[in-house]
Amino acid sequence: MIYELRIYTLLPGRTGDWLKLAGEHAVRVRGDNYGKLEGYWQTEFGTLNQIYHLWSYTDLNERARLREALWKLPAWLNDYVAKARPLMLTQENKILLPLLQLKAPAEPGNLYELRSYRMEPGRVGEWSDLFKKHLAIREKYSKIVGLWQTEMGGLNEVTHIWAYKDLNQRMAARAAVAQDAEWQGFIGQGRPFLRHMTSTLLVPAPFSPLR
After folding, report:
1. pTM, to two decimals
2. Topology of domain 98-204, per CATH?
């Protein structure tokens, strides 16, 4: 299984137009026949006017085959792509290898935090093993949704997504882990591997499977 995280930066103020277009045309045309949609979000904090969407495929060969078939669909090209392009400024994507099984929250109505950590070259495996060893401690405060290693895109990166009911719960959870001696022990062990960290808060689209 591989995942593709696509990040689109839109013209300021056009996020609502994009989501309407995606919900009425992209989701209808694609369904899960051209890759499985796992999550679809807009940014709330971080770089604004961005759309994040996460897709899963069996492997890179399936991705290539399905995307080739998708781009032969007139409805995709005419009803969606032609109308979407004028709204976009940039596109980027990352191919991700799962380090944990994707787990949806128990209930919908969540805020999501995507954290991306760039490691010292060659140290992703060591950090990930250490993280997973201590994950039960961290999940006392909030639940992880997914954990991936970047295969293509920014190398030596780990991406993880967390679910919160709202921003207040996130702030409370972050404050609590800062006081947890066991988790802070992990932080001390893992810090030497880290070179750069980013955090983006995401709001799910109405049609996102992860809600």
Report:
1. 0.95
2. Alpha-Beta Plaits (3.30.70)
